[in-house]
Amino acid sequence: MNAGIQKLKQGLTTFDLKILGIILMVIDHVHQMFLPFGAPNWLDWFGRPVATIFFFTSVIGFSHTHSKSKYMLRLYLSMFFMSLLTFITQNIVKYDKVVLSNNIFRDLFVGTLFMLGINFFQKARHPQHRTRNLIFGIILLAIPFIASLLVLPLTKAPIPVMITLSSLLPAIALAENNVMTLMIPLLYLFKDNRKWQCLIIAIFALAYGVVRTNQWLMILAIIPIWFYNGNKGRGMKSFFYIFYPTHIILLYLLSAVLYNLH
């Protein structure tokens, strides 16, 4: 207990936030994968702050990366391969008790499109190349919505074609957290004002509370975010990209095997 209090006094690094997010995420996915075995619904509560924490760290990562293009390409490729991986896994291991719709990479990539669009709008404040920057900004902000319009026609295509093409689309309609991804550009706009960022999270949580979903528990993400000290901490650039798909597939396979044995 004393160690935890001391840690909060020192503040949490980006590394600390990511580790906290990973721990809560695993608990949430244990609930998802073992729901057929009667996993208690309260396990799902642990996962409600997770997306918010990762949205916040993505704002930090995008703001400080040395190459925004490489950062975005890494997320885009992860989004594509994660989508294909879940589709292939479910086709090889038939297990209709669990549906793999997990792909936080799509949410984060959509968020980078929004953030890059904001960057172009900010550049448009200066007279030089103002029109070009405005056009690029509008296009980037529109892409997730335009891509969403392409999803419906794809449903009429053969399944392998539909899955492959939809895997390539940064559509907000396909994002795991859907409209909640709109929180990313808002957090980015106020990246230098923690109070406003926490207020934005609270407003989203209130909205979910009004529609009576337990996603309102995302408000708990404010606690670790408030204690963020602005430091990076230990590096773990590649770890999450590997751990995220690996633990989901392993939990899915374990659940499928145990269910069939049962």
Automatic annotation (TrEMBL):
The keyword Membrane applies. It comes from Bombilactobacillus folatiphilus. Coiled coil: none annotated. The chain crosses the membrane at residues 20-39, 45-63, 75-92, 104-121, 133-155, 167-190, 199-227, 239-261. This is Conjugal transfer protein TraX. The keyword Membrane applies. Keywords: Membrane, Transmembrane, Transmembrane helix.
